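Annual report, structural modelling task.

Input specification for the S-adenosylmethionine complex:
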Amino acid sequence: MITLRMGRQVHDAVARGYNSGSGIIAEKNRLVAASLVARVPRRDRAVAVADLGVGDGAMLAQLAAAGLPMRATGLDVSRAMLARAAARVPLTTVHAGAEHAARHLPAAAFDLVLAHFILAYVDRAALLAQARTLLAVDGVFSLVTTTGEGGSGFMAWLDEHYRRTRHPLKRIIAAAADRALACSHVPATYADLEADIAAAGLQVQARQTLRVPVSLPDAEAAYRFGFEEGWAANILTVPGLPLGVGEAMARWGVRQGAYPLRFIQVVEMLEIGRALPSADPATDRAGARSAPRGG
Ligand SMILES: C[S@@+](CC[C@H](N)C(=O)[O-])C[C@H]1O[C@@H](n2cnc3c(N)ncnc32)[C@H](O)[C@@H]1O
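The model returned the following structure:
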């Protein structure tokens, strides 16, 4: 509970400076909208969209600008993010965790479910089960996440400047980073993610992958990337640590590394549907035994 409340505070703090207007998030929004507008089933009514972890609503705004007529619901644990999203697009807002989305939203009612960059915070199996529950039979689930692939430059940096030093404060920062990594549900590889998708009774229908070389020239850029764009925000959710102290330590901490810090950000952009029953009855029986996990 303490961690959940702290998580909300951290996301409210990130909301103050969250920048979806440039960089990886803007590029993702552009590519995903272009693809989804062609793929989402059209009805004789507005398309029902649920955005889990809606953030500042930029993805919904991009879909609207691309010509998708929609009735949108945005769900988020941060009231500050919900306020930013609602100021940007017409939106029903739900203040809740994505892992419990189906408690708050109707089942099988959404033509499009979005969950972009929330796997650092939301259990993967739970999210997939919620998405499957919410999706209309022919609906599309747009899942966007980074994976651990490409992160070796960052891991080596963490090792060299924090984990392997004897400096007590740097070791505290290493421990906070390790805790954040251990709590994250970002998949190590695409293969891991695909296996979980299949186990949830879903299947990947389209995949685009972005490989973005990131080069952070100095501590200021590292702080902006990690804590203002939010890529490392959950390092700040240390139980019992006041947010202001965590922010001050993060500011001090990034200055202890050497620069430039270089790694590759691998972003998977998936369009997922319900798995179709197989034509082979033997495979069907095996499939029925092995999953769907919930939803
Ligand atoms: C990195 S931002 C991504 C925002 C948006 N989806 C995008 O692609 O720009 C992560 C968002 O997830 C929200 N969030 C964090 N934990 C959550 C949870 N358990 N359930 C729902 N939203 C959550 C944060 O408040 C934040 O708005």
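Residues 7, 11, 20, 25, 52-53, 55, 58-59, 75-78, 81, 97-99, 116-118, 121-122, 230 surround S-adenosylmethionine (CB under 6 Å).
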